[in-house]
Design a protein that fits this description.
This protein is mainly α. The chain contains three helices and no strands.
C-alpha cells in the first residue's frame, strides 16, 4: 500500500465527520464548541507530554485532571 491509496479513505472520513458536525452546528452554542476545543487541546498536550517522556498513562490522566480542574464555586449567602 502506498500513501496515495490512504488519501481517499482519510478524505471520506473527514467529509463524513464534517457532515455530522454540520448537522449539529445549529444546536451547539459557541461556549460548547470552545469548551470542547479547549478540552481536546489540553488532553492532546497532556498525553503527548506524558508519552514523550515515557511515563505511564495514569500520569497523563493526572496532568489532564490538574489542567482541567475548575475553581470551586464561591459560597452563597446564608439563609
Amino acid at each position: 500500500m502506498n500513501g496515495g491509496e490512504l488519501a481517499p479513505v482519510v478524505g471520506d472520513t473527514l467529509s463524513d465527520l464534517a457532515f455530522y458536525l454540520a448537522i449539529l452546528a445549529p444546536v451547539a452554542n459557541m461556549a460548547t464548541v470552545l469548551g470542547f476545543a479547549y478540552f481536546a487541546l489540553v488532553a492532546t498536550v497532556a498525553m503527548v507530554a506524558s508519552f514523550s517522556r515515557g511515563e505511564r498513562s495514569d500520569n497523563a490522566y493526572r496532568v489532564l485532571k490538574l489542567l482541567t480542574k475548575r475553581k470551586p464555586e464561591p459560597p452563597g449567602p446564608r439563609t
